[in-house]
């Protein structure tokens, strides 16, 4: 699996902005492969997901969060907040949650590849999304994506939002599924 350089940059920015006092310690804790990649990453290029996302996220979770899932979730939220600004923010602000989520496969495919997802159930206030192709089975990636979806929907104006991971490829199920509800 590959990831777009912008995702890698968002992890670096997350630690730099949110955990600035320990940023240099985090960088020192990275593997040589992750450090090398981080020092030369281009936001538009594709990179291996392990040294680009998983390893740096593991280090940030170990350093800053008692619950690694929360760290991955917060990192994903930050990535959406940073990525859905400027010209993309207009798209999100004028979209209904259902409209945006139904196009999620296009959005996710610009950041992670290969991926495949589908909306399996949808109403005015809820949606179930299943990733049927996410070739790397890793909980941190799943929590990061779920956190990203949560922030994207908050930017869309969703109130009383609840995003739950209801199935996990990382835990051996055949799909990664999120159930999302809002008012």
Characterization of the model:
This protein is of the alpha+beta class and 183 residues long. It has two domains: 2-82, no CATH class; 93-181, H-NOX domain (Alpha-Beta Complex). It is 54% helix and 19% strand. It contains nine helices and seven strands; from the N terminus they run βαααβαααααβββαββ. The chain has helices spanning 5-18, 23-29, 32-40, 49-64, 68-83, 87-93, 97-102, 104-109, 139-155; strands at 2-4, 46-48, 112-113, 116-122, 126-133, 162-167, 176-181. A four-stranded antiparallel β-sheet has the order 4-5-7-6. Strands 2-1-3 form a three-stranded antiparallel β-sheet. α1 packs across α5, α3 packs across α4 (49-64) and α4 packs across α5 (68-83). The model has no long low-confidence stretch (mean pLDDT 89).
Helices, strands, pairings?
Elements: E1 2-4, H1 5-18, H2 23-29, H3 32-40, E2 46-48, H4 49-64, H5 68-83, H6 87-93, H7 97-102, H8 104-109, E3 112-113, E4 116-122, E5 126-133, H9 139-155, E6 162-167, E7 176-181
CATH superfamily (homologous) name of the largest domain: H-NOX domain
- Cα(first) to Cα(last) distance is 35 Å
Taken from the alpha-carbon principal axes, the silhouette is: globular
β-sheet strand percentage: 15-25%
The number of helical elements comes to 9
Q: pLDDT below 50 for ≥5 consecutive residues: which ranges?
A: none
Largest sheet: 4 strands, antiparallel
- How many domain units? 2
- Overall structural class, as computed from helix and strand content, comes to alpha+beta
Question: What is the CATH first-level class name of the largest domain?
Answer: Alpha Beta
Q: What is the N-to-C succession of helices and strands?
A: EHHHEHHHHHEEEHEE
For the record, the CATH architecture of the largest domain stands as: Alpha-Beta Complex
Query: What is the third-level CATH name, the topology of the largest domain?
Result: H-NOX domain
Q: State the helical fraction.
A: 40-55%
If you compute it from the alpha carbons, what radius of gyration comes out, rounded to the nearest whole angstrom?
Answer: 16 Å
Strand order in the sheet with the most strands:
4-5-7-6
Task: Tell how many strands the DSSP assignment holds.
Answer: 7
Please state the average pLDDT score: 89
